[in-house]
Amino acid sequence: MMDIEVTSTEKKIERFISTLEAMGGSAGNQRLREALGWQESTYDSIKQQLLDESRIVSGRGRGGSVALSATVYAADAEAPTLLGVREASAPYLKTKAKTGSSLEAKASAAPTTSLPTPRNSVVKKSDLYSSIWASCDELRGGMDASQYKDYVLFMLFIKYISDKYGDSDDFVPPVVIPPGASFKDMVALKGKDDIGDKINTQIIQKLIESNTKLARSDFPDFNDPNKLGEGAAMIERLGNLIAIFEKPELNFGNNRADNDDLLGDAYEYLMRHFAQDSGKSKGQFYTPSEVSRIIAQVIGISRENTKGSTTAYDPTCGSGSLLLKVAAEAGRQITLEGQEKDVTTAGLARMNMILHDFPTATILSGDTLVNPKFKDGEQLRTYDYVVANPPFSDKKWSTGLNPSNDPYQRFTWGQPPAKQGDYAYLLHVIRSMKATTGKGAIILPHGVLFRGNAEAAMRRHLVRSGILKGIIGLPANLFFGTGIPACILVLDKENTAARKGIFMIDASKGFIKDGPKNRLCEQDIHRIVDTFRRGIDVPRYARMVPLDEIASNKNDYNLNLSRYIGSSEPEDLHDIDAHLNGGIPEHDIDAFAADWQEMPGLRSTLFEAERFGYARLRQPVAEVRQTILAHPEFQRFRTKVETLFDKWCRAVTPLLTGIQPGDNPKALIAKVSETLLATFQAAPLLDPYDVYQHLMDYWAETMQDDAYLIAADGWVALSRRILETDKKGKTKDKGWTCDLLPKPYIVARYFASERAELDAKQAELEGLTSQIAELEEEHGGEYGLLFEAQDEKGALIKASVSHRLSAAEEGGIDVAEPGEIPLLCKWLKLNVKETALKKTVKTLEVRLDQKAYEHYAALTEVEVKTLVVEDKWMARLQQDVQQELERVSQTLTQRIRELAARYETPLPKLESDVAALSAKVEEHLKRMGATWK
Fold it and tell me: What is the pTM of this model?
């Protein structure tokens, strides 16, 4: 019978306090209890004892919350920090204000009220990414990205599992942290001569021995002098690397599968950057997350059609990102299995699975084509969903394999070329899909769609089988291992006999530049997935192509997308008749049919008939834009769009204001963004995907961090000072801030008059400064009247000008130039006004700063919601929608101006102008006695 250790009450109390401290000093009850891993009765018992002892206090929030008492915070506030920059909970420093002190001194004094409850140690995603990426600087010197990534990712891994499973009360925790092998034990090694060896033997080896799914090949060598330096260099480098992950905000004890894989996202962020820095030959371990998301969505997996026994498989899983995206789309714990040829990359995948809360996933090492590890008996195991991003055109795919005698019957459609392994991986994927229900997708180079010989024969079998459901053409330069364009083949063994065509999408032009690579943005992903799911034809983008057309003599099973989808934009052809006889061609004007359908009267306002088939502008070109903006029909169009935005606001505001601690921000943005996209489907002239992109950009930029703060702390806006510590340990006050609700929003709503007064004084000050600058520019310099008034450095200051004025008025050796004295007096007068205004502006700034700070404490939860949702989020998104409205008018205006300029001068007028100019030149030449032949 197994002995079960009974934890004493004292130890439980100690653990409760330390966990709460690690979470920033306050947390929701449910969140804290889950971080502790306790039963509700145990948690309530310890919490009540601590409440009775006044060591913690209760707080608000759904399900309640607890926080350490103020005395605990006061003590902790004086503790040293390992960070170069730390954030003090108290908005003002603990210094007493002197009686009669200035407003500036008062602003830096501690308020007499009790300290506000500090926010939890919730790291914003943007800060988390940059913080961890900064840790790479500790290792970049001696290694390239393909090497130092292993060290940084291991540190992220050990920190995560230590935070999440280090004190687990689970009977069988997903990851076992044996004594002496946690991140805290790694911290204790800092500065020791044998730190590298101890990490290898004390930390890594113990983890491997206690967890069968981990292998030594998963982890880098922390005692390698060739990579980490020798002696003191290694000790310092590893110590600095560990210190990066000691940051209090990098505490992941509250990371939960039903909340958000924040750390998993950070891991993927690092993967992308490492892949980008690793170069062409070493970046193939990572599939861009945007492509992975497309695959996960087009194969049809969802929460509704999955259960615990649902299986997904990736035969070339790399770091596991593609497999995890499939699991995320399933929305539940499903069976994940993957194989990866590179043993180090397989280790990254195993860590990635654990970081994303899929510790039960099985990742095995080995060459999938030569030695597939997942089998049932002697046959390949088959799965509900199979996805893959194999190495493109693998030239060594058949090494160690006899394709003509394959024990798994993968090459019955033919033998792939010896130097071209794309179809080998495709056939393995098809063979691994369940016989009648299996679904899958594979990323391959475009060549598989049209290359001849053996591949042409296999392609014919593929099309005839009905398994190929769709093809999605992707942009070039999307993947880190290659710059060539690729495509996604979507496979489905269900209803193959009834399949009458292949749905094709040419998405090759939908991307943005991201450094040296191209990247799909949110609207590109959504457009692809929406179009594929609906199976609708979209001109120059998507089409359902009948199998008969593909099999015709003309095409002969060639699947090159350009044969079936003409993706090129129509040429802008010049009209010869218009160049000869003038007028703007009606067919060019007709190109804006959607605009004229929405605003039929605008066309007649802008144009009038000149002759049959040709028109001319009714007003000067310079007035076209103003005519469009002022037209009643354009105003009506604007009102329609604004009404749709208001409708969306009303629909999602309850969702946004309803965010509570413990909520899932990813689920929130999914619902909010889908509602926006659906609402703007009814918007005339606007592309709803463009509006959707604005929301997703702002989500990544600001809203996401805000939502995470609210989901952690609730609707509280706590200001805090930013204290910067330099290398000498000296702390500097860099002002105060509030993450959720920055100062400008408080000022705009509650202190508009004070802001207006300050702005007026600042404008007046800028005017005075400009006058002084103009005076100095006009009369300065070596020969200017103000030259003698400059100081030794050649600058005009009050002392030097006053001295010169005194000398000039007294006469003597230095006699003033005519007009110099009035000029000096003018400069001094302006300078006195400028000095007084600067003081006034500073006083107003400090006063406004003080008022804004003090107002945070008075904010109610309702006010915070209004400020964040209406003043911050919705106001910004409304501006983005206005940008789209402006784009409509600008596009129409620009094209009209272009057409007007193109046909402004017909050929007869050009000839007439040339003749007139020629005659004028001849007349001039004749007067000069010259002849023109």
Answer: 0.77
